[in-house]
Amino acid sequence: MLILVVNAGSSSLKYQLINMEDESVLAKGNCDRIGIDGHVSHKTADGRTVDADCDFPTHTEAFEKLVEVLTTGDAAVIRSMDEISAVGHRIVQGAEVFDRPCMVTPEVIDKIDELRELAPVHNHAHALALRACTAVIPATTPQVVVFDTAFHQTMPPKAYMFGLPYEDYEKLHVRKYGFHGTSHRFVSAALAEAMGRDIKDLKIVSCHLGNGSSITAVQGGKCMDTSMGFTPLDGILMGTRTGAVDPSAVTFVADKHGFTPDEMSQYMNKKSGFLGISGISSDNREITAAAAEGNKRAILASEMLAYQIQKFIGAYTAAMNGVDAVLFTGGIGENSWEVRERVCKNMEFFGIEIDEELNRSTRGKLMKISKPGAKTEVWIVPTNEELLIARDTLALISEK
Ligand code: AMP
Predict the structure, then answer these.
(1) Which of 82, 85, 231, 337 is paired with 96 by a 20 to 30 Å CA distance?
(2) Are 297 and 304 in contact (CB under 8 A)?
(3) Among the atoms of ligand 1, which is closest to the Cα of residue 286?
(4) Extents of the domains making up the chain
C-alpha cells in the first residue's frame, strides 16, 4: 500500500511516496519556487533523479509535475496515481478546531483556510495545495490532513493561557498552540519503545532542535506544555527567530525603529536568533565553527541556546514533578554533539549525566547517550514526521 505525504508551503511542495508494507521511501522530492518560476527535484530510492526548471504559476502546476515525475519518465516509480491508496498532508495550524487527523472535505479545506490569521505563512498555502491536489489526483483517492498543533491540544488551560484579558482568548483565540507536534509525538513514542517502557508511565522532555526549535513536556504520552506559543516564534533562540522576549522590549524596539507590526514580526522571525546575535549565520554548523575559532558573538549564541534549553528542562521537570528521559531530535539535536554536550553539562541535579565519548561519536541515529545508572536517561531520537503522517493517514483510511 502506497501513501503520498505532502508538505506544502507558499512556494514549495515537498513530497515522499512511502510503501507502508515496510515503511520505506520509494521516492521523494520538492516542486519548488511556485509562483516565482519553478524547479523540480525528484529522487527515487534506487538513485534515479529528475532535476529540472519548470513553470509553476500556482500549486496546481506543481501538483501536475509531481504526478508526472512519479508516473512517467526515467525516474517514475508507479504507472498511475491509482496505485496510491491515499495522500496525507502536513498542516501547521489546526487551532482548537482540529485535535486529531481528519479526512479532507471541501469544508475542512475552508476551515483550514479560515485559520490563516493564526498561521499567516502556512495555512493559506496549505489550503491552496489541498485544492490543487483535489483537482489533480483521482477523486477516488482519499486525502487526510495531519496537524502540527494537534498533539499539543492536551495542554491544560494553565499551560496554554497567556496573561492577556480573557476576551482575547475568547474572541481572538489568542493562546499557546505549540508546533512540531507530529515530531514530538513520533519521537516520544519511539523513545518509549526503545526504552522498553509503556509511554503511559514516562515523563519525557522532548527537545526538537533545528532551524525552528521547540521543547515539549510529554507525560504519559500526552503534551503537558510546550515552548512554542501562539506562533512558532516563542520559546528558545532559533536560527533566525528570537524565542521568548519581554513583550515590552518588542514594543520599545518597534517604536525606536519605526516598525509597523508586520515589520517588527519580520524582524523577530527573520533577522534575530542565531543570525541576529552572531551576525554570522542562522546555521548551527557555522555558529559552532565560529565559536570554536573564538568568535565571541558565536560563543554567546551557543551559550544562550544551551542555557535556555537547560532552563526548559528544569521548568518541565517541575511541571511534571519528575523526568525519566530527555531526548534530542531535529537537525541540531540529532547531529550536533557540541549542543548536546553543552546542554547536559552541570545538570547532575536533574540526574543528567552523559557519556561524553559516546555523545561525541554519535550522529543521526537512535542512541542512549546517558551514563549507565544515570537517574535520567538521555537519548538521541531521529524524527520522521512524514512517516507518522503516513501512519496516521493509513490508520484513518483503514477505519473507513
Ligand atoms: P532542521 O531544521 O531540523 O533541518 O535543522 C537544521 C539545523 O540543523 C541547522 O542549524 C544545521 O546547522 C543543523 N545541522 C544539520 N546537520 C548538522 C551537523 N552535522 N552538525 C551540526 N548541526 C547540524
Answers:
(1) 85
(2) no
(3) 12
(4) 2-147, 197-380
Q: What is the CATH number of domain 197-380?
A: 3.30.420.40
How do residues 45-57 score in pLDDT, each as one tens digit?
A: 999 999 999 999 9
Q: Which of 186, 137, 164 is nearest to 330 (CA)?
A: 186
Closest ligand 1 atom to residue 330 Cα is: 3
Sequence-separated (6 or more) residues with CB below 8 Å from residue 241: 212, 232, 233, 268, 269, 272, 273
Could you tell me which of 396, 400, 399, 393 has the C-alpha nearest to residue 84?
Answer: 393
Sites in the chain below the pLDDT cut of 70 = none
Per-residue model confidence (pLDDT) at position 117? 86
| Residue 53 Cα to chain centre, angstroms | 28
Determine the pLDDT at residue 65: 97
Element (H, E) at 300: helix 296-320
Whether ligand 1 lies within 6 angstroms of the CB of 183 is answered as no
Q: Which amino acid is at 155?
A: M
2-147 CATH choice from 3.30.420.40, 3.30.70.260, 3.30.70.980, 1.10.443.10: 3.30.420.40
Q: Give, as one character, the DSSP assignment of residue 111.
A: H
- The rounded Å distance from CA 178 to ligand 1 centre is 21
pLDDT of residue 134: 96
Tell me whether residue 148 is one of the annotated catalytic residues. yes
Terminal CA-CA length for the chain: 16
Strand duo 2-8 + 84-91: pairing? parallel
Cβ 394 vs Cβ 1: under 8 Å? yes
